[in-house]
Amino acid sequence: MAHILLVEDDILLAEGVRDALQLDGHTVAIAHTAAGARESAQIFDLYLLDIRLPDGNGLPLCTALRRQQNAPVIFLTANDTEADVVRGFEAGCDDYITKPFSPAVLRRRVLAVLRRTGRDVQRLGELEIDLERATVQRNGSAILLTATEWKLLALLVKHRGRVLPRDTLLHEIWDLDGNFIDENTLRVHVRRLRQKLEPDPQHPRYIITVFGVGYTLGDLP
After folding, report:
1. Maximum Cα–Cα distance across the chain
2. DSSP 140
3. Could you give the count of Cα atoms lying within 13 Å of 58 in the half-sphere of its Cβ?
4. What is the pLDDT of residues 6-23, one digit of tens each?
5. Assigned architecture for domain 3-116
6. Strand, coil or helix: 192
7. Are 154 and 134 in contact (CB under 8 A)?
8. Domain-wise residue ranges, the chain
9. How many CA atoms lie within 13 A of 106 on its CB side?
């Protein structure tokens, strides 16, 4: 799942694109102008840009965004000549989709670009979890985890939506080296992870205990 900025002045089209991408679990912010895109203080995993914008051209915007954050860019535009496509790639885009387009095709091509560029970032409330870089941030500030805490969090993220039994977590995190670890060790690491990640560790929202079974990741936007 990725955090995407869509820059599109057609309000109905923008809402339709957002709805389609949300089907894959992405979060989509919308800007209707180039200035709105530049003024955003958020960090995005992918940019979807129109070229014809009310206050300018999406080509230099693409170049500027890639220079600032080096996140992938896909153009969604009515400019459909061969020369237009070439200029789009020269500006630094990763894919070029001409209007009109199928929402299903857009979803597949967004996923393809994200896989190709190696971004596997998930969001949990105010947390940004980057599985590729093994990092966690809260509102742009890094949260330092131990190697074991990261393994525990990564397992829960990779199996989001499932309850992972305690035995599975013990085996995946510790037993690969043939070491025996009891359940109390797991509970200690869960508690420490909650202290670092949860807004209120006494009432966890992210790492949920399923009594008698194990743990699951809270399904938060």
Report:
1. 64
2. T
3. 30
4. 999 999 999 999 999 988
5. 3-Layer(aba) Sandwich (3.40)
6. helix
7. yes
8. 3-116, 125-217
9. 27
